[in-house]
Amino acid sequence: MITNEMKEAILYLSDKENYMVFAGFATYLQTGIESSADIDIYLKSKEDFDGMVEELVSQGWKKVKEGTDNTHYWHACLEKNGSTLDLVYSKSTAEVCFPLKQKFERDGIELYALSTELLFLEKLNQLSSIKRTEKKTERDREAVSILRKMLDLDKLRAILPQLKDIYWREGYL
Q1: Average pLDDT of 28-35?
Q2: Model-level pTM?
Q3: In angstroms, rounded to a whole number, what is the distance separating the alpha carbons of residues 57 and 49?
């Protein structure tokens, strides 16, 4: 179910191009599998990340968590009335994923998201996580089953050599 806060975030993103959604909401856009009340967003640059966090906080979103390694990634979790936005800037994502982002539409919602091939790899990776809940693992399996039928195998083959060590060792794009 898409909450009012998620609709607010979607409207906010609708006139921007410096982002792409990933994880559950990207899965919803591409497969129709319903996500939880959150939207995960990659930003194209550290400046875009800082700017979006600042703007959304000024619009009533509360920063409830943040993290960084001060070199490769920055993360902020914002919350409003039980809905969350996870904003992430990652150097490897900016380099590998942003050139491949795609625009998807579902139920009148149009957003930039990870490409089908990258989302497939993300979902495969999440299936290997021992920390995933059974419910999320079940959704991931369903997503992988649907996405594998949508893949452009040439695009997938071209992506694999570009993935950084952090993807293979830590599970993050």
Answers
A1: 93
A2: 0.92
A3: 12
